[in-house]
Structures are given as structure tokens and as C-alpha cells.
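Quality-control log, excerpt.
Job 1 of 2 completed; input and output follow.
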Amino acid sequence: MTFHIVLVEPEIPANTGNIARTCAATATHLHLVRPLGFNTDDRTLKRAGLDYWHAVQVHYHDSFQEVQEQYAGGRFFYASTRASKLYSDFQYQDGDFFVFGKETKGLPQSLIDENPDTCIRMPMTDKVRSLNLSNSAAIVLFEALRQTGFVNLK
């Protein structure tokens, strides 16, 4: 069972480090779309999970379009507070991609507009703008893993 987390232009190294650690723990591939708001040798990234970097399948891309072209047959789900459907409304399957935008702006509106049927959100009160990026990625990923029976995980 292999899932994919795609971070489009992530800005905060600690979030990416935490997500990398989650990916290492679940054999999930991590895709980082440039430009990154940090170096992958950043000390903060190390503290947040870079010591697990060797256990993560990390793929670097120069654009999100490159990801789409390279994995043209893949199913992409776009996380956004602007989505109308909940992440739990979908039946996930092996090979799915979960796409998250930068911390300050989220995904480009054009991606949301072009993919309304596969945009997902986490329910929350209106007291906050959004959940933390690494928490959001973990919530969606573990729902997909739960649905598929936690294959190959202890």
C-alpha cells in the first residue's frame, strides 16, 4: 500500500519535517514542489524529523504540473478550507495523492476550481483559519490508511 503526500511550496520547515516523519512511519511517499521556503538541511527540519529522512521516499518537483504529468494516472485529492466535501466522504485506494498548499495561502484557487469533485476539507469551527499543515496531512493520511486496513503497518 503506497500513498503520496504532495506539499506545494511548503514554507515552514518544522511542518515538512513532521510530515516527513509521518511518511517514514507509514511508507508514504513525500513530494516537495519547489520553491521551498527552506533548505532541506535546515536545523529546524532536522529537529522535526530529518533524522528519519533516510527512511522517506522524497521526490522533488519544479512545479505541480510536473507531478500531474509524471503521475497522470493517479487520483489527486486537494486539501483546502474552501472545499465543500469532507475528507471522510471519500473511499481512498492504494496510490492516491493528497495535495496540500503552502501554509500562508493554501492551494491556488485555480486548482480548487478545476477539481471541485476531489477537494477535501477537515471540519472545524470558524474560530481558526485552518489546522496546522502537518496535522492536516496526518489526519487525511491516517483516514486513508484506516480505510485500506493499515496494510504493512504494525
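Job 2 of 2 completed; input and output follow.
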Amino acid sequence: MSLKMSLKTKAKNIMKKFICLLLITCFLIPVFQIPIFAAEYVLAPGDTLEVKILGKKDLDTKQTIAPDGTISLPFLGRVEAQGQTLKEFNNNLKSAFSRYIANAQVVVFLTPRPIYVIQHDIKKNVWDVKKAESVDEARAYLGPPDKGDYRGLKHGDIVAVSVSQKPDWWEDNWYKVLTGVAVAVGVYATLHK
């Protein structure tokens, strides 16, 4: 009997360890799938940059990156912006302006390119284009996540979504059918008294 109790106790201990290990694994798997650091935003055509040189208000400018990936700045002319992070671009401008301005302090503000969400209302057969300034705003326009996986959504994307279901004849006309039947029954009952 002591052997049975010993085996049951060992089995319980092994089962407890297995369950603990399973729970720990279940909690750790999602943690390792989450990226720890988000990728830095990379400048591209369509981004709006506001370049300010501290103490030189007459040189401040606000421009959208052209399709060729450049912007035009005083003293520097056409400057390549595409493909750089905001920090890299800011450092490059600082070193470029320091050739013309002593101790140039450059600050670059970014307005990212918008995300366009095309909503198709199937019932009315109407298309509506929404301009979202942020990823969260675009996800709100796209609707619940069950309509699609929008985790990879980024600035500059164009996404289409259906915002209604196909028309259902009965759903749209049931009251007309019932009204017609009621009128027909009323007329029949009146004529056959």
C-alpha cells in the first residue's frame, strides 16, 4: 500500500510539473513573437517634411518629398531624402548646413504619407475613399479585424474593404411583400362578403 501511495504521489508531482511547464510555455510563446523594437520609419515620396534651422527663420521650409525622392532646400539645392530614417536625414542636413552656417542646429518634423482606405458599399454600389493620417485611424476605417489581417499596414498603403453585404432581396423587400399580401386579402375579403 505504501508503494501505491508513493507512485500516486510521484505521478501527481510529475503532473504538476508538466502543467506548470505547459503554462509557462503558453505565456512565453506570445512574448517572443512580439517585436521588441519597432522598425524606424523610412522616408519615402509623399512624406511631408518641415525643416527648421534654429535662429534662421528665413530658411525654414515645409515640403513634400518629390517622386524622385528629393526636396529642395536653400543653400543645398536638391537633397536626397528617400530611404533614410528621420534621424539619419536630420544628421545629414546638420552636417550639410554646417558648411554654410556656423553651429547649425537643424530640426526636421515629419508628417507621414497618408494611408488611403477604399470602402466599397456593396448594397448601394458606392465607393468611398478615406484618407487616414495614422495606422490606427486606417484600422478604424477598415472595420473589425475579422474582415482581414491588417497588422502589416503601413504609411503609404492603399487598402480596399467591403463595408456591407451583398443585397438580399427578401431582407430589403419583406415589408412590401407582406403589405401587398395584406391588401390582396383585404380586397378579397371585401369582395366576397
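Post-run check on job 2. The two ends are 93 Å apart (CA to CA).
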